[in-house]
């Protein structure tokens, strides 16, 4: 296991963190003596697509759990828009623009596709239940849900039961659920998991469109290297909890330490 606090784990811009939508500082999660996430420092710039790769068990999902607030770190900070959110629970981070999908599916199979997205919009908006406001609010929620479905190419599947969707459609629905929360930072954990090869290009196009407007940023874990190389502006490499490198795809792929970490393991 690499030692903690090595210069290699510090893959961030020097100087103030201003401008980064999401930043982690010395972020560490230990179970006993083992650092599952080891002193990770990343900066996600506005509009940036940052891919996260690493062998199975490298700590990628654990890093996302710390960033989203699902677990408290042992030490270190998570900053959203320059503000320290380390003490905030997941729903408060979501209100501040942080959205995530999960590695396993989080869709209500017995509800329709449209109902799933409406629930996600309502959850994000919360707000007043006063009757006289209800109708206007319901219309706004329905419109936002339909916009999210159109964004991912599921506009025609609104009435289908979510449980009947094919894998590729389900992944799109999960992204629509995420969009319903109007996030500025999106965490995607293996969005291609279980998707058949013929559905991958369409899903890649949907994911690429996420950073295409309004400075929204994406942090994405993905095992398909061709997808990462196609989408990512920069790639962060995790190994045994630590960040080995964080740079442009060409530089990362040419990095000897990265190649060594992957020796004998599928990327
Ligand atoms: N709650 C937990 N209790 C104990 N060990 C855990 C826990 N969560 C994760 N781990 C361990 O931490 C390490 C990192 O797991 P994590 O799921 O973050 O890896 P990953 O990079 O996402 O892997 P994969 O590519 O397989 O999804 C693994 O060794 C895992 O067994
Ligand atoms: Mg994982």
UniProtKB/TrEMBL annotation:
Keywords: ATP-binding, Nucleotide-binding, Transport. The keyword Acetylation does not apply. Signal peptide: none annotated. The keyword ATP-binding applies. It holds the Pfam family ABC_tran. CDD domains: ABC_Mj1267_LivG_branched. Residues 22-265 form the ABC transporter domain. One of its GO terms (molecular function) is ATP binding. It comes from the Bacteria. InterPro entries: AAA+_ATPase (IPR003593), ABC_AA/LPS_Transport (IPR051120), ABC_transporter-like_ATP-bd (IPR003439), ABC_transporter-like_CS (IPR017871), BCA_ABC_TP_C (IPR032823), P-loop_NTPase (IPR027417). One of its GO terms (cellular component) is plasma membrane. This is ABC transporter ATP-binding protein. It comes from Polymorphospora rubra.
